[in-house]
Amino acid sequence: MTPTREQAYDLLTTHTQNPNLVKHALCVEAAMRGYARRFEGDEDTWGITGLLHDFDYEQHPSLEEHPFVGAEILRGLDYPDEIIEAILGHSDHTGVARTTPMARSLYAVDELTGFIVACALVRPSKSLLDLPVKSITKKFKDKAFCRPIDRGHLRAAAEEIDVPMRDHVENVLEAMRGIASELGLDGEAGA
C-alpha cells in the first residue's frame, strides 16, 4: 500500500503534537521532494518518507526506541519497505545501511534542514526568503553556532548523495523556501 500524503500527515500529527517537530517534518518533506526530482524518484514516496522520518520521536525519543517504534507502526499499516528502510537508515545508531538514493537523501537533508532554520531565525527578518547560501556556509564554519549539529556528519551526508556541500545547501534551502509561509519563516510574522 502506498499511503497518500494526507494519510501520512494524519499519522504524523496523531503522534506528534510539538509544532516545531511538525515543522521539522515539513522541512524534510520539502527537501526530499526536491531531491526526488533531482534523482528521478517518486516525489510522493520520497516526500512521505521525509514527513514521517521522526513521527515517533516525540513519544519515543530514546536511541533504543526511535525510529524502531515508528518502523513497527509503519509495518503494521503496510507501508512500503523502501519507506521503512529509509527511515531506519536516517540515523547511524540503527546500523541500517542506506542502500537507495531515497535513504541517502533522507540522511543528507535531515540535520541540514534544522541548521538552515537556525540560520533563518538569527536574521532580523527571520525569513528563508532572503537568506543567502553564503550566510549559511559562513555559519557552517562557526563552531559555536548550533554546536550540537556535527559539521562532519553534514559533509559526509552530502558526499553520500554525491552533491557538493554548497550545492546541497542551496538545494535544501530552495526546497524549504517553497514552504516558508507554512513554517512562519517568510518574514511576515511581525509585519
Share in helix? 55-70%
Largest sheet: none
Number of helices: 10
Low-pLDDT stretches: none
How far from one another are the termini?
A: 44 Å
What is the number of strand segments? 0
Mean pLDDT: 95
**How much of the polypeptide forms β-strand, as a percent range?**
under 5%
The radius of gyration computed from the alpha-carbon positions, rounded to a whole number of angstroms, is 16 Å
Would you tell me the structural class of the helices and strands?
Answer: mainly alpha
Query: What is the molecular shape?
Result: globular
Give the topology string: H per helix, E per strand.
Answer: HHHHHHHHHH
What does it look like?
The chain has 191 residues and is mainly α. It contains ten helices and no strands. It has helices at residues 5-15, 19-38, 43-52, 68-76, 81-88, 101-121, 133-141, 151-160, 165-177, 180-183. The mean pLDDT is 95.
Outline of the structure:
60% of the residues lie in helices and 0% in strands. The chain is mainly alpha-helical.
Topology of this protein?
Elements: H1 5-15, H2 19-38, H3 43-52, H4 68-76, H5 81-88, H6 101-121, H7 133-141, H8 151-160, H9 165-177, H10 180-183
Helix pairs in contact: 1-3, 2-3, 2-6, 2-9, 3-5, 4-5, 5-6, 6-8, 6-9
